[in-house]
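(Structure overview)
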Amino acid sequence: MGISESIDWELNRQWMDLLARTGTPLFFSARPGSLIADQEDQLRQALALASTGGSHANPSDWLVNDCPEIWTDDSGIRRYSWYQPAGLEFSDKPERYDGYLSAV
């Protein structure tokens, strides 16, 4: 994850939390001194969780959402909000194409 002034911390924090919970390797890049104490604490907590292999969270809404926001793990359901109000306008129910779905 890239930590910079051009990326909203709340979005980075959510991404960092999700990576740590899914067991995905968590790497970060930040300029020394660019984080405030609370952000450093959140980063330490995420790195500690990631070092344990996470809790293997899985997306719950991947069939209806191209960018899953609802994830489930042993501790329950977590909801992430990936979109900024000033960003691109995405539909609450994105259009899915059969070509993207695996044949079952």
